[in-house]
Amino acid sequence: MRALLFFGLIIVIFLLIRWLFNRRPTPESNAVSDTKQMVSCDYCGIHLPKEEAIKDAENPGQYYCSDKHYSQSKNHTG
Description:
By secondary structure, the protein is an alpha+beta fold. 40% of the residues lie in helices and 13% in strands. A hairpin with a 7-residue loop joins strand 3 and strand 4.
């Protein structure tokens, strides 16, 4: 009878250890999915999130980090 209890205890410990090592990480631990598309300012080259950038209406694909750089770029080129 003692041998049976000992054997059962060994099995429980084995299953507990196996369960502890096979746990999957929680979704909070790999929360890198909050990425943003980055663009660079056509005047100074700084990178910033696309939703924060000022988009040039006349030239699609050109972005600026501030109103100042947008206007300086327009004054510089034209």
